[in-house]
Amino acid sequence: MLSFIGRRILIAIPTVLLISVFVFFMQKLLPGDPVLALAGEDRNPEILEFLREKYRLNDPLYVQYFTWIGNALQGDLGISLRTQQPVLTLIGQKLPVTIQLAVMALIIAIVIGVPAGIVSAYRKGTWVDWLANILALSGLSVPNFWLGIMLILLVSVKLGWLPASGYQPFLDDPLQSIRTMLMPAFVLGTGLAATLMRHTRSAMLGVLKSDYVRTARAKGLSETTVVVKHALRNALVPIVTVVTLLFGELLAGAVLTEQIFTIPGFGKLVVDAVFNRDYAVVQGIVLCTAIAFIAMNILADALYRVLNPRMRNS
Amino acid sequence: MSTASHMPAAGLPTARRRSRAWAQLRTNPSAMFGAGLVAFFVVVALLAPVLPIPGPAETDWAAVRKAPSAEHWLGTDEIGRDVLSRMIWGAQASLLAGVVSVAIALGLGIPLGVVAGYRRGWTDAVISRITEALLAAPFLILAIALAAFLGPSLRNAMIAIGLSAMPVFIRLARGQTLLVMTEDYVESAHAIGLTNGAIIWRYVLPNIFPPLLVQATLTIATAIIAEASLSFLGLGQQPPAPSWGSMLNTAKAFLEQAPWMAMWPGIAIFLVVLGFNLLGDGLRDAFDPREN
Amino acid sequence: MSYKRMLALTAALMIGAPFAQAADLRIGLAEDPDVLDPDQSRTFVGRIVYAALCDKLVDITPDLQIIPQLATEWEWSDDGKVLTMKLREGVTFHDGEPFNATAVAANIDRSQNLDESRRKSEVASIASTEVVDDLTIRINLTNADATLIAQLADRAGMMMSPKAAAEAGADFANNLVCSGPFKFKERVQQDRIVLEKFADYWNADQINFDTVTYLPITDGTVRLANLRAGDVDIIERLAATDVTSVRADDNLQLEMAVSLGYQGITVNVNNGDRAQNPLGQDARVRRALSLAIDREALNQVVFEGVMAAGNQPFPPTSPWYSTAHPIPARDVEAAKALLADAGVETVEVELQLSTDPVAQQVGQVIQAMAAEAGFDVKIVAKEFATQLSEQTAGNYEASQIGWSGRVDPDGNIHQFMTCDGGINDSKYCNPAVDELLNAARTSNIVEERKADYDAALAILAEDMPIIYLYHQTWIWALAGKVQGYTPYPDGMIRLEGVSFAE
């Protein structure tokens, strides 16, 4: 097991380096100059030139790249040109926010998606299955950002039930924290719930057809016991794997959701940084998400092996 | 994009199986409903120039943000243009964005994937690493950065989305090619001295076609949402030409005063994406032997 | 969990009291401020935060009179080259350091000499400072400079603790130490900036809050929704199109002030090859474009009439506005005649603007109006960062852009219209205009300056390198309980005298 994980990590290293190269050079190709973007109205050429020198934006690109990646390896991701805060500090501030959003969205997705998947697999071909499928596809088809603004309009503006935006650290005030995050988590969770429902359904379908379920039924066990104890337990393997893999989708979804609900997390940080040409921030964030994404993939594979002993030998 | 893990395995390229699949698709009510939705929007988009509607950029200062009425069925927008007309013309932008960006993704992804799967070795290693790296960067962030780099326009948004969607197709084409290559008939083709090009053309491509068709249909759905998202951030279709995403972008400032401006484009995106998803699902059911 | 408890929890989640303390004022900002160091900062929104954090040597009244703040009185020498200021007694910085003439000298030195300083051009006329006594500072200028006192009413006049500044160097932003009514507590980028009351503030009687929290909420609809929900107490830059609904809401108040800046179309007349087109080369074509635009209709359509239509760098309400050139009425026939005179019938113009939806609405209205006079306007939207760099590089024909405005008229015209102006992106150059604008700078006599500006504006109305369209109106929406708020044309939020109703 350890050697499997070790091997996967070794393979991941060139991938991470490649990503760092991509992000770095793609940004440098962006039109507009970070110093000028930051200058806004005050654009004194002398100061702009001084800042370019100071942040070493005049160095050859490859020198800039190696300086950056060298520092990054030592845990220094540079500073935000816009506010002069260290990128690492920013990531530390934003990480709990996006994680809370992701966890709440995942809980919502699991609570909706897994039972729906079980029921529709169990009632395959009936109207229940059909309805669940239509709902799931609707969840996949509705644009998140549109759902977001419609919910703000209805729940915050018209009904005044939940705050329209913002963030309250969970430890400061758990109740308010959950309240502010409820709507965005729901928006983010709907798409995931749909994906999860579809995976649960197909996993359950496979298991329900299997021999041991037939055996369990033959033994005269109640349907609930059969479905929950025997079938679900076996279907959990692919479901857990999918949940781990959904992480990437969660991050991508968080980008727009955070933008709509003005949540100060990773997604908002990275989009604002792209628009402000705040290079160090974009580079730092994309590198971190990519590493996290790869780590989750490795975790998914490892989990799959642990939960599914047959895989270990193959 | 997660749907990629659901791909059917390549099977034998017999015409009989193919026609059975199409027949099954025709009897699948939800797939046909999806096809109907897609067809409806395609027809409307194509008919835009001949329909008796005002021009999409025709302004009327006296009718700014007016609610739906007999004169303007879906109301007017922030500078007095007919929303119905902009919806219809906007359908062109959205559908075009979906189709063209997937075409770009296919056009680049299939050759790269097939070459990687066919040649193996170093070629494969390099292409696979790059694909993995691209897949590890969140799709939308990649598209946003690319669109910002290329400059805001519909064409550039399509390129950005196409490039961001490409890695999925590389991976899929590569995997399917690897599968096909293990088949006996490919080995015998090698044995009788067929050229690589001929083998790819005659055996590999026809076999990887069904899963790619399924994935492409589902990706069109994703691409339409991605275009709307980019336009929503101001990086897509540029004024005064309409697209559903850019209409939503302006509409969000008038949620209270003119909710219809945000409603129609949202519903339209939802319906057309639902159409492609239903159709894609139907195609998968029809072509995937495991589900039957 | 029982059904009842679940229900109770759900109810608590849905209607639980909003998180707010009695004396915490929460302000919704339209953007996230940049670096919090008055010498380095660049954004308008940053200045809003400084209004509570950093006192200046002098301040302005809503009608732009200069009044004492940290300096209690001042006088100019007869040749206008020496400014002597008396300083307020008993003022301390947030770190307990005393405020005195030495501190003023150190602050001016920092503005002039910190490598990263963005204030250099604003205090360029200062040759030296002399500490006369503990509370008297003498500022010697190289030449008479009428604009200096207004600069000292803004970021260049903000006083920071010299000790803390020296220790932090250029890295002051994350722990700024000033002497204003509130001191810096914490900042979470894109989320909030928290300031807490400074107990030893010299004017503490006027301050009624224990903390102020600034929350950047970029989306206008969401900002207003937060105000309605009671999650913030004041929001700035309310969308003009929301004015009607806020006015109709009994729980909210509305405050407005016409800004000191302008919005318009900057034309590339001499900035590289892209100036080589009829619009860039022929002033008649530019005047035709100006005549084709109905400024009042533009204001009505896009802003429901809330902005102030304009045709000069100064708004019609400003004492500096030249009444000899009132806002022209739209005249399509005259515009066509001008084009015919210039020997062109249709003119293709590429208009660059930012991806902001409001900018795009304005652009589309201009496009539709100009089309009737024979202009084929092609809109090219660019991200703001790109728009600025294209404009500086001369890679544009016409650019729809604005200026947030400065207290002294010089700040709204000199750097754009003089040949070597720092942000003269149209590269317009007319020695006669240079002479007039330079003269207006050095005179301390209002009538003389006014005559110079009038003469310069007369030339600019002919040459028209910038087609001025309208002046933004700052709009604030406030919760019903907020009282004592005064709107200022500089768009700042000053908290002296503001309180919550009991």
CATH superfamily of chain B: MetI-like
* Rg of chain B (C-alpha, Å): 22 Å
Return residue spans of chain C where pLDDT drops below 50 for at least 5 consecutive residues: 14-21
Secondary-structure content class of chain B: mainly alpha
Integer count of domains of chain C: 3
Task: Give the overall form of chain C.
Answer: globular
- Specify which chain pair forms the largest interface: A-C, 55 and 53 residues
How would a textbook summarize the main sheet of chain C? 7 strands, mixed
Quick summary:
The complex is a heterotrimer of chains A (314), B (292) and C (502). With 314 residues, chain A is an all-alpha fold.
Structure description:
The complex is a heterotrimer of chains A (314), B (292) and C (502). By secondary structure, chain A is mainly alpha-helical. Chain A folds into 2 domains: 16-73, no CATH class; 90-311, Orthogonal Bundle (MetI-like fold), CATH 1.10.3720. Chain A contains 13 helices and no strands. The longest helix of chain A is centred in the last third of the chain and has 39 residues, at 223-261. The radius of gyration of chain A is 24 Å and the shape is globular. The two termini of chain A are 13 Å apart. The mean pLDDT of chain A is 83. The relative contact order of chain B is 0.18. The model of chain B is unreliable at 1-13 (pLDDT under 50). Chain C folds into 3 domains: 55-175, Alpha-Beta Complex (Dipeptide-binding Protein, domain 1); 180-258 and 474-500, D-Maltodextrin-Binding Protein, domain 2 (3-Layer(aba) Sandwich); 262-471, Dipeptide-binding Protein, domain 3. Chain C has 16 helices and 21 strands. In chain C, the strands form 5 sheets. A 7-stranded mixed β-sheet of chain C has the order 8-9-10-1-11-19-12, sandwiched between helices. The longest helix of chain C is centred in the last third of the chain and has 18 residues, at 446-463. Chain C is globular, with a radius of gyration of 24 Å. The chains are: A mainly alpha (314), B mainly alpha (292), C alpha+beta (502). Chains in contact: A-B, A-C, B-C.
